[in-house]
Write a structure and sequence with these properties.
Elements (H helix, E strand, L loop, with lengths): L1 H12 L3 E6 L2 E5 L7 E2 L1 H10 L10 E2 L2 H15 L7 E5 L2 E5 L4 E4 L1 H14 L5 E2 L2 E4 L10 E6 L4 E6 L2 E7 L2 E2 L8 E10 L28 E5 L5 E5 L8 E3 L3 E4 H10 L5 E5 L2
Parallel strand pairs: 1-8, 10-19, 13-17, 16-18
Antiparallel strand pairs: 1-2, 3-4, 5-6, 7-9, 10-11, 11-12, 14-15, 14-19, 15-16
Helix pairs in contact: 1-2, 3-4
Length: 273
């Protein structure tokens, strides 16, 4: 009889815990996977002297550290980072990526629930709780965007992903190529000073104040790429060629128009085509 009782208690304790991650995702967690051990002989001895119908406790040893480590691994599997809304290029046309909420597993509450179920020898499903993580950029109106075709020496201007107009530009020489990538406008100046960048070609140059001979023309739209910007140029003959030291040159009237139609934060995509 004690042997049969021992087997029954061991079988009952060995039942898996059911962890509910979502309505469609459940995990069977065996107590042995966490090193949990039940003192079955002690429970059987208690049962032999208990009155009929009495509830006999089952002493269970479970490591807090092992449960925490398991739940942390579980979190790394099922945590989801939030996705910011952003613009990306589809060919040469900007399109929006919508934002998505993320989630993070409640580590402490989940660990407690697992330990409680093991220590009480209960097997009711455990619904894991998650915190909702909100993206930093939760919504996005497309607004304005600039796409620069480096090899074609063209600047394309979009509003809400619709093409509005294009301009001829000059981009960087082969020795000083305009960098490819995704940037944004971070600085806008009317009638800017020109300051020599830290480059060999400008080593003996002096700053140039605003005026007819200023290399930046009358408008400067600095990009998040260091020392690179979109600006006007008094050298209109360079438009259409790879002639600059990395910046994007525009005819002065074109740069003044663009200046009126972009803002700090306007995305600028520079691609090779």
């Amino acid at each position: 009889m004690p042997e049969r009782a021992t087997r029954l208690v061991e079988k009952a304790f060995a039942r898996p815990l059911i962890l509910v991650v979502s309505p469609t995702r459940k995990i069977d967690l065996l107590p042995g996977a966490l090193g949990a051990r039940a003192n079955v002989p002690k429970a059987v001895r208690r049962a032999r002297v208990a009155r009929p119908g009495a509830t006999v406790p089952l002493d269970v040893e479970v490591s807090r550290a092992r449960v925490r480590a398991y739940v942390d691994r579980l979190g790394r599997t099922y945590d989801v980072k939030p996705v910011d809304a952003r613009l990306v290029l589809d060919g040469v046309k900007p399109r929006a990526i919508v934002s998505q909420d993320g989630r993070r597993l409640h580590r402490l509450a989940s660990s407690r629930a697992v330990r409680f179920a093991l220590q009480r020898n209960t097997r009711a499903p455990i619904r894991l709780g998650f915190d909702t993580l909100k993206p930093r950029v939760a919504s996005l109106e497309l607004g304005t965007a600039v796409v620069i075709l480096r090899s074609s020496n063209r600047l394309l201007y979009f509003v809400n992903a619709k093409f509005v107009r294009w301009f001829g530009v000059a981009t960087g020489q082969s020795a000083y190529p305009t960098p490819l990538g995704s940037y944004e406008i971070v600085n806008m100046q009317r009638n800017p000073w020109w300051y020599p960048p830290p480059s060999k070609w400008a080593a003996d140059s002096e700053p140039v104040p605003p005026g007819p001979g200023n290399p930046l023309g009358t408008r400067w739209m600095g990009l998040s790429a260091p020392y690179v910007g979109i600006h006007g140029t008094p050298d209109a003959a360079s438009i259409g060629y790879s002639a600059s030291h990395g910046c994007i040159r525009m005819r002065i009237p074109d740069a003044e128009w663009l200046f009126q139609h972009v803002d700090i934060g306007t995305p600028v995509f520079i691609i090779a085509r």
